[in-house]
Amino acid sequence: MSDTPELDQVADARRKLAAYAGFSRTYWTLYGIALVLMAGIPIWMSFLPETAAGLQWVLLAIGLASAAYSIGRRRRTGVQLPRRISAYPSARRVWLVVLAITIASVAGIYALVGSGQRVIALLILIPVAAVIFAGQVLTRAKMRDDIVAGRVLA
Questions:
Q1: In this predicted model, which residue has the larger pLDDT, 24 or 99?
Q2: Spatial CB neighbours of 139, under 8 Å, sequence gap ≥ 6
Q3: Mean pLDDT within 144-152
Q4: Residues sharing a CB contact under 8 Å with residue 71, sequence separation 6 or more, in sequence order
Q5: Contacts of 150 (CB under 8 A, 6+ apart)
């Protein structure tokens, strides 16, 4: 036991709260699959141009399912963590890097598909999705670290 049981209680509460910043393995698996599908949109559209309208509905369904999962989880647990990335100081930098990589990667894939290099675009799709996925996992880990350390801004 330490000399400051109140601080120990606060630290324990932060650790318990940080557990809510993580997602289940099922979520991450589905997220990884969705990420590959979304990052490959220009590739899929070049192979199947008549399905562009259907692809938009799939993207809408993915977005709605993700939002519903998040809302349902908040209601089930009763834990309301800040949703803005700016509330998590150490996660913000990682998030910005991942965002820049995502934008550059999608632009690169569009450029490759536009110049007729669909095979090359397909070959770089998995590594690109893996880097983006790893960045998202790292961002969540940094968010948990900020919660545990008490650095979350309101």
A1: 99
A2: 85, 91, 94, 95, 98
A3: 84
A4: none
A5: 10, 14
Q: Examine the pLDDT at 121 and tell me if it is beyond 90.
A: yes
Q: pLDDT by residue (tens digit) across 81-115?
A: 777 888 889 999 999 999 999 999 989 999 999 99
Phi-psi domain of 79 (left: phi exceeds 0; alpha: psi -120 through 50; beta: other): beta
**Going by C-beta distance under 8 Å and a sequence separation of 6 or more, which residues neighbour residue 39?**
102, 105, 106, 109, 125, 128, 129, 132
Is-contact 33 129, C-beta < 8 A?
no
| DSSP string for 49-87 | GGGHHHHHHHHHHHHHHHHHHHHHHHHHH------SGGG
Q: Give 140 or 56, the one with higher predicted confidence.
A: 140
Largest CA distance in the chain: 69
